[in-house]
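fyi for ur records
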Amino acid sequence: MRFAAADISGQGHLLARLDSRLKLLASLALLVMVVSHKGVWFPLLTAAAGVAICFSMGVRPRLLLIRFSEPLVIALVVLVLKAFFSGQTVLWSFNIAGMAIFCHQDGLLEGIRIASRIMGACAVVATVGFATPFTELLAALAWLRVPQGLIEVTMFAWRYLFVLADDAQVVYAAQRNRLGYVGFRRSFRSFGTLAGALVIKAFDTSQTMTIAMVQRGYDGSLPMLKHRPFRLEEVSAALLAVLAMGVLWQM
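which gave:
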């Protein structure tokens, strides 16, 4: 369960002790602010604040870089596409194999705005993810009236994802010891065998889990989705944080 432990590395932090429902509501409000802001500085400020909070929770830089790698690539792609394929005002140009390439100033600015929104939104999501255990996050989503069936499927999928990952590592190690990944054709065949074994394993595990839960009287109600009453100090702190960010958003 090393993957799960990485997500809750900051459980001693002040933000981690806040009610998960308040964190979810505050993060949704911040996401709306980040996406709706017409400038650049507020999303970048939100991203910087999110990264700083993650570091204060003890998140390793390598893990944080992994979390931001995919949205960073998407932001760079959007920035390049906007700069070179949209806009009217030419900022500079160059030739590649006799073809003129133009970089547009207005397209570049629009790309920077979109990229800043992507990074700001991802920082909010990453901060909430590091500060909130996955089960508590699902409980908060259930409180927001997300369909119970979706919550249950997500809960069980998250639980057995690590089991399947361990099984995949065992099968992969066995294949490598038998030279199953020497050459392209053999590697492709070994990967197909690995994928098929995991599908069969997932199907068998789902049947076993269903039978076990029915025999234990499962009625569709998960006790981990119950909530404690709101605390006045937590609600006040969440409201102050959202209001402070709202003031900055209006500036």
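The chain has nine helices and two strands. thats all i got for now
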